[in-house]
């Protein structure tokens, strides 16, 4: 039976119109399909190595991110949207050699800068509470010179309480699904320690723990007044740390999935070595 498809011959090789059309479709369609699948997969899962940058307004979060990118101080404005930047391990080095070579090794990572305004803090909290989202560690940046003022202290502690509670919830969820859940490292980065009014890190650490304890006591009393006991499980989710005590200590929080560290530094003076070393440890863990 004669072929219904026209035949061509080129260099002694016969071609069928049907085969030619199918080949062209395959060549054109396969790259398109693969690219869509890869894009959809990336947007769904997000970056696999994220370090979250959070803290109250004007603490220096965006300045820190840009400092890691440019190795110099860059003027910034108040952020209103989150920004995720991919950085190489060399960004965590304190300096570069003259020829630009680096001894750093490891995979690139993502630093997610989130706004500090009270109405925009959900960006950071959602990143933490979503157990499927990557969060290798959290850098909570504060202004060690301004925290001496009560309004700034209250704002700083309120956000820190929300953040710690979100980490605790994430750890609880992961503990129910796996036996290898590890505490999430959280660094309290006390920025602007080069200023005359800056408090030392030991003083800030003590003050934060005391204020967190007072805030926990207030929230516990609020739950009791609202009729705690009717939904005990939900009520316990609102309590940071041990629900039998109002005291908050960094050591005690580790049992609930939060591994807190605290270090002073200054972006303006380039004293960020302690913070970058901490991030490096998170990436290597």
From TrEMBL:
Residue ranges, compositional bias (Polar residues): 83-94
Stretch list, region Disordered: 83-113
Membrane topology: Single-pass membrane protein
Gene3D superfamilies: P-loop containing nucleotide triphosphate hydrolases (3.40.50.300)
Record has Protein biosynthesis as a keyword: no
Keyword check for Cell inner membrane: no
Residue stretches spanning the membrane: 12-34
Entry keywords, A to Z: Endoplasmic reticulum, GTP-binding, Membrane, Nucleotide-binding, Receptor, Transmembrane, Transmembrane helix
One term under GO cellular component: endoplasmic reticulum membrane
Protein family per UniProt: Belongs to the SRP receptor beta subunit family.
Entry protein name: Signal recognition particle receptor subunit beta
Lineage start: Eukaryota, Fungi, Dikarya, Ascomycota, Pezizomycotina
